[in-house]
Amino acid sequence: MPAESAGASRDPSPSVPDGAPAAGPRRAPTPIEHLFLDTESGEVPLGFVRSGATIYLIARERSAQWPVDALRAGQVRIRTHDGPARGRIRLESDPVRREEIVRSFREKYGAEAFARWYDHPARVLSVELSENPAAAGPGEYQQWLESEFDNVADDYDRHITGNRMNRLLRDRSLAQLRPLFRSARRLLEIGCGSGMETLPLLREGHEVVAVDVSDRMLAVVRGKARAEGLSERLSTEKMGAAELPTLVARYGEGSFEGAYSTYGALNCEPDLRPIPGALARLLSREGAFLAGVYNRWCLSELLGYSLTGQFARAGGRRANPIRVGASRFCIDVYAYSGWEFARLFAPWFEPVRVEGVPVLLPPSDLTSYAEKFSRRFATLAGWDAWVGRRWPFAYLGDHFLMTFRPRST
């Protein structure tokens, strides 16, 4: 899945239902009924709705830390007026179910409090209370990933098109995809998201097999293709990138003239090792693979944060996974340097082109700085593209676009 920024604002103060732990003495509790959620940083007071053995919570800000910590762990400890309790937590992504829960918050807390704390929530969560909830298992991360992208699927286009730097990322990837696959018939897209690259390539006559971990993202892409009369050239497969080996039996070896995965899907995988070998079997000998990868070393962050004394943030991409709070994303991500990524693919593929995107311009979570130069943005973007194609800057972008060709042996 594409992994563009989700903002960097903080939660409201702990005296409100959707809060973050306070620094210093605890404030007086809010008169609104709430519970306390236990986190690594302390207790967080939250408004809630209870139905039998299920408790519902709302996080208004996508950058809120407490829901991410809870979803990563898979279970939570809470304290209500009835005493302490524990339970399994999950993200509610079905729109109808979400609306029912949100409506129950409006009914419980009233229009004024609801408008202040819960309107247009980023996440709606449910806690199934249990005396001995199970710990998070190996498949929990994949379920979390799927539910997060299901949760934002309907609004994902606005998230991309509403951010100048996110639009630049897509413009740069399409500028490479179009000439690279001009003569290709069938393409494999790994992490199609809402189809920002799928649809342009379908319009140009390519057949696309679009893979994504999110059912709702795939439904959005199918809906767009159907609306434009392009459904016959689109196939979709619900799976994570690491499940690509299953496509070999389904489609056959050498069945794709090209493959691509840009800005997120590969960075969401804890283990990339199954992917290169599967791609080598799926691609024809004349095929190519374009990867857009969240970079471990970003020049604009290294310089910008260092100059302002934020040295921890300057090197914030060093440790994998980069957890929410240290990165700008709503989930944990895995960053790779260009050299690391090329080495993973080396037994099967040879890198033939690398471009940093962007290098001089700031990342998408800092787009406000780019907006200060909006009148000269086209000129700056041109300089950035020129610099991004040259060593060593090609390896120092917020992301890098790396084109691979299969090795002859």
Q: What keywords describe this structure?
A:
single chain; 409 residues; alpha/beta; Pnp Oxidase, Chain A; Rossmann fold; seven-stranded antiparallel sheet; seven-stranded mixed sheet; 14 helices; 14 strands; 23% strand; disordered N terminus
Question: What is the gist of this entry?
Answer:
By secondary structure, this protein is of the alpha/beta class. The protein is built from 14 helices and 14 strands.
What does this structure look like?
This protein has helices spanning 65-73, 95-117, 140-152, 156-161, 164-180, 198-203, 215-227, 245-251, 274-282, 299-307, 311-314, 338-345, 367-371, 377-388; strands spanning 35-39, 42-46, 49-51, 54-59, 75-80, 83-91, 123-129, 186-190, 207-212, 234-238, 256-262, 283-294, 349-357, 399-406. Residues 1-31 have low confidence and may be disordered. It is built from 14 helices and 14 strands. With 409 residues, it is α/β, with parallel strands linked by helices.
Chart the SSEs and their pairings.
Elements lengths: L34 E5 L2 E5 L2 E3 L2 E6 L5 H9 L1 E6 L2 E9 L3 H23 L5 E7 L10 H13 L3 H6 L2 H17 L5 E5 L7 H6 L3 E6 L2 H13 L6 E5 L6 H7 L4 E7 L11 H9 E12 L4 H9 L3 H4 L23 H8 L3 E9 L9 H5 L5 H12 L10 E8 L3
Parallel strand pairs: 8-9, 8-11, 9-10, 11-12
Antiparallel strand pairs: 1-2, 1-5, 3-4, 4-7, 5-6, 6-7, 12-14, 13-14
Helix pairs in contact: 8-9
